[in-house]
Amino acid sequence: MNKKYPADWGGKKSLSWKIRRIYIFLILRLQMNSLWKSTFRRKLLRASGIKIGKSHVGQDVIFDNIHPECIEIGDDCAITYRCVIISHFVSTERGGIHIVMGRSK
Length: 105
Hints:
Helix content is about 25%, strand content about 15%. By secondary structure, the protein is α/β, with parallel strands linked by helices. It has a three-stranded parallel β-sheet with strand order 1-4-7, with helices on one face. It is globular. The chain has helices at about 15-30, 40-50, and strands at about 50, 55, 60-65, 70-75, 80, 85, 100. It has one domain (about 5-100).
């Protein structure tokens, strides 16, 4: 078990891993709705495991739901309409890459 990436809890075939994947998927789909303010979107993104500062996240932004804990967005970033941010397809050894945007604390 890799402690750095909590998405790997119990291995990919365990029930806790599957429930966590469904939870993250639903949270990330919910944040895409155009009804929410950016402040509420940030709360939803934090609930999915993404580290985010005081940045603007617009509607229809797609975040990686495989390894969202590898994404870190600092202050003063503007992520706008229909951006796609992924953290997999690069390193299969670690499970993804670590993405850092903006000023980190």
